[in-house]
Design goal:
Blueprint: H1 2-22, H2 24-29, H3 45-48, H4 59-67, E1 70-75, E2 78-83, H5 86-93, H6 109-112, H7 121-131, H8 137-158, E3 168-169, H9 171-186, H10 199-216, H11 224-230, H12 232-265, H13 269-272, H14 275-281, H15 289-295, E4 297-298, E5 301-302, H16 305-336, H17 338-352, H18 361-365, H19 368-380, E6 386-390, E7 395-399, E8 403-407, E9 412-416, H20 417-421, H21 462-479, E10 480-483, E11 491-493, E12 497-499, E13 504-509
Parallel strand pairs: 2-9
Antiparallel strand pairs: 1-2, 3-13, 4-5, 6-9, 7-8, 10-13, 11-12
Helix pairs in contact: 8-9, 8-21, 9-16, 10-12, 11-12, 12-14, 12-16, 16-19, 16-21, 17-19
The structure holds protoporphyrin IX containing FE.
Length: 512
C-alpha cells in the first residue's frame, strides 16, 4: 500500500513538474507583465472562482487598479492575459491573424453552431464575405419601414403601462420589438413576438440566454459533459429549448426557401409574387440575409441547410438581444435624466417634425444628440461587456510604456470593454450619464471605447443597430414622457449584459 501511494505521489509530482516545465517559455514571455500572485501549479485559481455574473464588473476594476491595464494570471496551466489597454487592443483587434474566438464561446455551439460569431479561419472569412453586403446602406434604407412599423407596435404595447403611475421593466417589451425587427428584416419572416405569436420560441430564447449567461462564467460548467453530470435537469431543459429553437429556425428556412423558389421561378418576379408568398417574404424585392444565404455558394457548392441554420440562429440571437439591452438601458437612463430627455425631444422635433413617414437615413444621421445619448448609454452599460480570444500564434506587440512584448501561442486574452469605458482618466465623472461628452473631439485613444468591437471581427450589425435604435427611440420619446420610477440598473453578466433589477421606469403619454 505504502509503495502504491509512493508511486502515485511520484507520478503526480512528475506530471506536475512536466506541466510546469512545459509552460516555462510562456512564463518567460510574459514576465514583463504584472498580475496577482500565482500559487505554483494552481495559479490564481482562487481568483478565477471568485468571478460571478455580478462581481465581474468590480473584480477586474480592482485588479486593474492594482496591476495596471494589461496583466496576467494563471489558472492551473492556462495563461490568461486581461487587457483594459487601448493601445494593446488596437494591435490585436486590427490584426487579421489573431481572430480566433475563446473557448468560452463554445457554450454557444449547441445553439448557434459555428456561425459568423463563433467561427474562425477560412469558414469565418467566406461567411463574412457572403454576409457583409446584406448590411449595405441601401438595404438598411429598405429596412426603415419595418423599424417604423415595429416601433409603432411597441408604442401601442407600452400604452397599457403609460398611466404615469406604474413602475415596470421595459426590457421584455423592447426585446419583443427587436426580435420582430431582426426576424422580419434579416429573415423576411414575421414572428409576432410583440403581439403574442411564436411564444414558445421566445420563451426558449429567453431561458437559453439566461442559462448560458449563468454557465459562461463558471469555468467548470463550460464543458457539456460536466454540465450534464452536475445539472442534469438544466441540461434536459436546455435540450428541450434547443429542440424548440432549431425546429423554429428550420421552419423559417423551409418556408423562405419555398417562397424564394416561387419568386425566382416566376417569369416576372416583381409582379408575380402571390400574396401568401409576399407575406412570408415581407416585401417583394427585399434581399434579406436569409435569401442571400439560400443562394450563396462556397467553392461552387451551395450552403447546406445546417450551414444556413447556424447563421439564422446567430443573427436571430445576436441581432436582437444586444439591441434590446442597449435600448432598454437608454430608456432607463433617459427616465432618470429629464434634462437630457427634453433636449432629445427637442432635437427629434426639429430634425424630423411630427411625421414619422419623413424618416430616412439622411435625417436619422442628423440626429446627432441622439447619437451621443446612445453612445453614452453604451459606455455606461456596454451590452457586450467583455470579449475573448485564443492566441494561436505568438503575438508581438509594441507599447509606449510597457515596451515590446509577446503574447505566446496558447495564451488566452480577455478584453474588458466595460472596464475601459468607465476609465476615469479618460472620462471625467465617469459614472455620470453625460451625452455631451461625445460632442467634443475625443481626447483619448480611439480604442478606449469600442462597444461594437473593432477591426475585421467588429460587429457586422453596428449600423443596423444604430438606425434601429434611433427609430425606436424617436417613436417612444415623442409619444411618452419617461419617468424616473423603480430601482436603478444592477448590472449582471449574461452573455449579453443583464440587470438583476430589470430596466425599470414609468411612462406618461405626452400631451398632443
Ligand atoms: C447595440 C447593439 C450591438 C452591440 C453593442 C454589438 C456588439 C458586438 C460586439 C462587441 C461584437 C464582437 C464580439 C466578439 O468579438 O466576440 C459583435 C459581433 C457581432 N455582432 Fe453585434 N452588436 C450589436 C448589434 C448587432 C446586430 C443588430 C446584429 C445583427 C443584425 C449583430 C450581429 C453581430 C455578429 C454576427 C457578430 C460577429 C461578427 C464576426 O465575428 O464577424 N450585432 N457585436
Amino acid at each position: 500500500m505504502d509503495a502504491i501511494a509512493l508511486i502515485a505521489i511520484l507520478a503526480l509530482s512528475a506530471l506536475a513538474f512536466y506541466l510546469h516545465a512545459s509552460k516555462r517559455h510562456m512564463r518567460k514571455a510574459v514576465s514583463n507583465l504584472g498580475g496577482p500572485y500565482n500559487i505554483p501549479l494552481l495559479g490564481a485559481l482562487q481568483l478565477a472562482y471568485r468571478f460571478d455574473p455580478k462581481n465581474i464588473f468590480q473584480i477586474p476594476t480592482e485588479l486593474k487598479n492594482k496591476y495596471g491595464d494589461l496583466f496576467k494570471l494563471w489558472a492551473l496551466n492556462r495563461l490568461i492575459v486581461i487587457s483594459g489597454d487601448a493601445e494593446f487592443n488596437e494591435q490585436i483587434l486590427t490584426s487579421s491573424v489573431h481572430i480566433t474566438k475563446h473557448r468560452l464561446y463554445g457554450v454557444l455551439h449547441d445553439w448557434l453552431g459555428v456561425g459568423l460569431l463563433t467561427s474562425d479561419g477560412q469558414k469565418w472569412q467566406s461567411r463574412r464575405k457572403i454576409i457583409t453586403p446584406t448590411f449595405h446602406f441601401k438595404i438598411l434604407e429598405e429596412f426603415l419601414q419595418i423599424f417604423k412599423q415595429q416601433s409603432e407596435i411597441l408604442v401601442e404595447c407600452l400604452a397599457a403601462k403609460a398611466d404615469g403611475k406604474t413602475t415596470f421593466d421595459v426590457y421584455p417589451f423592447v426585446c419583443g420589438a427587436t426580435l420582430d425587427i431582426i426576424a422580419e428584416t434579416a429573415m423576411g419572416t414575421k414572428v409576432k413576438a410583440q403581439t403574442g405569436g411564436t411564444k414558445q420560441y421566445i420563451k426558449a430564447v429567453t431561458e437559453m440566454t439566461k442559462m448560458l449567461g449563468w454557465r459562461f462564467l463558471r469555468v467548470h460548467l463550460q464543458s457539456e459533459v460536466v454540465f450534464s453530470i452536475l445539472h442534469p435537469f438544466k441540461k434536459l431543459q436546455s435540450m428541450k429549448n434547443l429542440r424548440i429553437m432549431h425546429e423554429f429556425t428550420r421552419n423559417v428556412i423551409k418556408e423562405r426557401r419555398k417562397a424564394l423558389e416561387v419568386t425566382l421561378g416566376s417569369q416576372n418576379p416583381s409582379a408575380g409574387t402571390t400574396s401568401e408568398t409576399e407575406q412570408i417574404l415581407g416585401t417583394k424585392k427585399r434581399m434579406a440575409l436569409l435569401d442571400v444565404l439560400l443562394q450563396a455558394t462556397v467553392d461552387g457548392e451551395p450552403l447546406t441547410d445546417e450551414d444556413i441554420r447556424e447563421e439564422v440562429d446567430t443573427f436571430m440571437f445576436e441581432g436582437h438581444d444586444t439591441t434590446a439591452t442597449a435600448l432598454s438601458c437608454t430608456l432607463h437612463l433617459l427616465a432618470r435624466h429629464p434634462r437630457v430627455q427634453n433636449k432629445l425631444l427637442k432635437e427629434i422635433q426639429e430634425v424630423l417634425g411630427d411625421d414619422l413617414e419623413s424618416i430616412n437615413l439622411m435625417n436619422l444621421n442628423d440626429l446627432k444628440y441622439m447619437e451621443c445619448v446612445i453612445k453614452e448609454s453604451l459606455r455606461l452599460y456596454s451590452p457586450i461587456p467583455i470579449i475573448a480570444r485564443e492566441i494561436k500564434e505568438d503575438f508581438k506587440y509594441k507599447h509606449s510604456t510597457i515596451g515590446e512584448g509577446v503574447l505566446p501561442a496558447g495564451s488566452e486574452l480577455v478584453m474588458g470593454f466595460y472596464v475601459m469605458a468607465s476609465e476615469s482618466k479618460c472620462f471625467e465623472n465617469a459614472n455620470e450619464f453625460l451625452p455631451e461628452r461625445h460632442q467634443q473631439p475625443a481626447k483619448m485613444h480611439n480604442f478606449q471605447f469600442t462597444p461594437f468591437s473593432a477591426g475585421p471581427r467588429n460587429c457586422i450589425g453596428q449600423k443596423f443597430a444604430m438606425y434601429e435604435m434611433k427609430v425606436v427611440l424617436t417613436n417612444i420619446i415623442r409619444t411618452y414622457e419617461l419617468l424616473p420610477y423603480g430601482e436603478k440598473i444592477d448590472p449582471l453578466l449574461g452573455i449579453v449584459l443583464r440587470s438583476s433589477t430589470g430596466m425599470q421606469l414609468g411612462m406618461k403619454r405626452r400631451a398632443t
